[in-house]
Design goal:
Layout lengths: L13 H6 L7 E5 L11 H10 L5 E5 L23 E6 L12 E4 L2 H8 L9 H12 L1 H24 L3 E2 L6 E5 L5 H9 L5 E2 L9 E5 L3 H16 L1
Parallel strand pairs: 1-2, 2-3
Antiparallel strand pairs: 3-4, 5-6, 6-8, 7-8
Length: 234
């Protein structure tokens, strides 16, 4: 597999993706919004990209964080399902809060789904997971509540983390990607001792100055900021 890196500002370089397409290319995977950065591709850019992708190449668009997106120009691959070999994959682990059930779904045209059905394992999800997911789809009030909580928490944490001198990158997900200006390993361990988990990014191949912080409830966000101040001042 060929990994196409993000730009210095962690935005996508779709032209670089196209330059790597060759005779042996079978599948292109886009993570939009991106994990762990929260950066995203807008519709105009995605449409331009899809026009260039060869007809025989499959595009998998991982849109796990789609429901958190606030940018009205966000680019989903959904409009391309009937025009290209496209699969949009989404999950119930994020906005619906069903991570422990391990259930998600893919959207593609009928021909593509029929091909997948021939190789799909017969017991890929449990009946309980499917029932919970079906109920979650109808619970719009929970989704809207989660979206409002995430939007407010993002504003609060961005302001407070910036006050600490951190660089907080734009995010269209339920987390913030930050540069703390130092090696974050000790900071992460100190927070763990206090019962707070944030993730340093070395496992993603990034320098240890970067961290990803999931946006929580208001009380959890305030607790994080309080403990960060105490640790950084000590």
């Amino acid at each position: 597999p060929i990994e196409v890196p993000l730009e210095r500002d962690f935005s996508y370089n779709l032209d670089a993706y196209l330059k790597h397409i060759g005779p042996k290319t079978k599948v292109i995977i886009l993570c939009n919004p991106n994990n762990p950065t929260g950066s995203h591709i807008r519709q105009q850019a995605l449409d331009w990209f899809m026009e260039q992708v060869p007809e025989d190449v499959i595009v998998i668009s991982d849109e796990a964080y789609r429901e958190y997106v606030e940018d009205t120009e966000f680019g989903s691959a959904f409009p391309w399902i009937e025009r290209k070999r496209v699969v949009v994959v989404r999950t119930f682990s994020k906005i619906y809060g069903l991570a422990s059930l391990r259930v998600g779904y893919g959207i593609a045209n009928r021909e593509f789904i029929a091909a997948l059905e021939r190789i799909r394992p017969p017991f890929n999800t449990t009946g309980i997971s499917q029932d919970a997911a079906t109920a979650a789809i109808d619970d719009r009030s929970f989704v809207e509540k989660s979206q409002k909580n995430n939007a407010a928490g993002k504003i609060y944490l961005r302001k407070e983390l910036t006050r600490l001198g951190w660089t907080v990158y734009p995010s269209e997900a339920n987390f913030l990607f930050c540069a703390v200006g130092r090696n974050s390993v000790a900071l992460v361990k100190n927070l763990e001792k206090r019962g707070i988990i944030i993730r340093e990014m070395s496992s993603f191949g990034l320098p240890p100055e970067y961290v990803r912080i999931t946006i929580g409830k208001p009380s959890e966000n305030r607790l994080l900021v309080k403990n960060l101040r105490e640790i950084l001042q000590s």
